[in-house]
Amino acid sequence: MRVLRVEMGAFCVVRLIVSRQDDISLNLKLPGYSYIWRRVTGVKKTFDVISMRIALVSAFPPSRHHLSEYGFHLADELRRRKVDFIVLADELASEQAELPGFVVRRCWRVGALNNVPRVLSALRQCQPDLVWFNLVYSTFGANPMAAFAGLCAPALARASGFRTHVTLHHLMENCNLRHADINFPRLYQFAGSIATRFLLRADSVSVLLERYRRVLHERYGANNIGVRPHGTLGTPFPPDPALRPPTEFRMLALGKWGRYKRLEPLFDALPAVLDAVPHATLLIAGCDHPNRPGYLANLQEKWGTHPSVKFLGYLEEDEFENVFRSAQVAVLPYLSSGGPSGVAHIAARFALPIVAARIDDLVRLADEEGLALDTFDPENSAELSARLIALAHDSARRERMAEQNHQVALNTTMPRIVASYLAEFARLLGEQPQIPARPEREVTTA
């Protein structure tokens, strides 16, 4: 007996057991796909359809840890495509209800040293066809030992027989550790390079910028790297001038604040902006960086009563539309970068012009994806105020920037991004991976 194996799309495989000579016409329809396979000889009259099963290892809401929002949007698109998947997520600090419609297993804890055996145990139980890791270097903890140990998970999962893919949102080589208050930055860089080598032992790796791919190829000799854009997190909205009246100039800053994302340059620029644009308002949204508790509270104590400053707190997903669509500009006052900015992509989703610090990752992001953004020296608040004032006085330019960012959002929607991932996963699974056997699904050959 032999097996005919036919790939029928990005996430489905059909296996037919051949037992005797027979001609059939098979018309198979799947969500979003239709295939007709004619004159197949020697096919038994029964067949099995086996869906690709994915384990997504990621922080996941209601957690607010690194990349939890991004993990949600990946999972949401997998769900929309009716992919069989499970989220292996971080444990919550307190009892909270899981988001409806997702299968979530919280099997690792931020800061723990034993995350790798816990993740591997979960994988052996759920038996995925492919394991997808959604990572930054601090996903498994800010403690260096916990972070390093967790980053070994993709290599050890592959060594255990699972196909693995890593989405790596930044590179240690591109992080300016001076702004992270690291005592021994060279030691961190060395450990980071070793962690990178472990991550590259996954079957394949996706990075978000072409620059990252070149670094991994030139410095580490990696050839299993693909470039896939960050993507637009949610449905893009066209610009609506009615929601942005000319009598207002709302400047919005969103982030996890206190480490390399800092608001001091923006507050230093605010007096000059208000002198030139009296109707300007500064909106501060987000939360403290996990390593900088109390940062926003200290700023709110100083600026909370200012009539032109509003602290909005952490924004839930359903609050984005109202806040972003009524703002005139998104401001990214970063001292360095932790990768292509998710906030910039949220701003593009809501057709919002961007004023961003002139740091390499943001400049490269604008070049590679075509985002419309003005830049300023991150150490120069006067240049920041000049950029904001010029934009406030040029409504036509704001409209052009808004339309350009809207077009970028349309070209990088999550359906397109996830479709690219699924095509890569199908390629990996087409290489006959040695995945631990599932007796109830196994088809024998002779």
Uncertain parts:
1-50, 432-446
Remind me, CATH topology of the largest domain? Rossmann fold
What is the CA-based Rg, rounded?
24 Å
Tell me the CATH superfamily of the largest domain.
Answer: Glycogen Phosphorylase B
Q: In words, what does this structure look like?
A:
The chain is an alpha/beta fold and 446 residues long. The chain has three domains: 2-51, no CATH class; 53-231 and 417-429, Rossmann fold, CATH 3.40.50.2000; 241-411, Glycogen Phosphorylase B (Rossmann fold), CATH 3.40.50. Helices cover 35% and strands 24% of the residues. It has helices at 68-80, 115-126, 144-151, 153-159, 185-199, 210-220, 264-276, 295-303, 320-325, 342-349, 360-369, 381-392, 395-411, 414-429, and strands at residues 2-7, 12-18, 23-30, 33-41, 47-51, 53-57, 84-90, 104-108, 130-135, 163-168, 204-207, 225-227, 249-257, 280-288, 309-313, 329-332, 354-357, 373-376. A seven-stranded parallel sheet has the order 8-7-6-9-10-11-12, with helices on both faces. It has a six-stranded parallel sheet with strand order 15-14-13-16-17-18, with helices on both faces. The longest helix is centred in the C-terminal third of the chain and has 17 residues, at 395-411. The protein is globular. The N and C termini lie close together (5 Å).
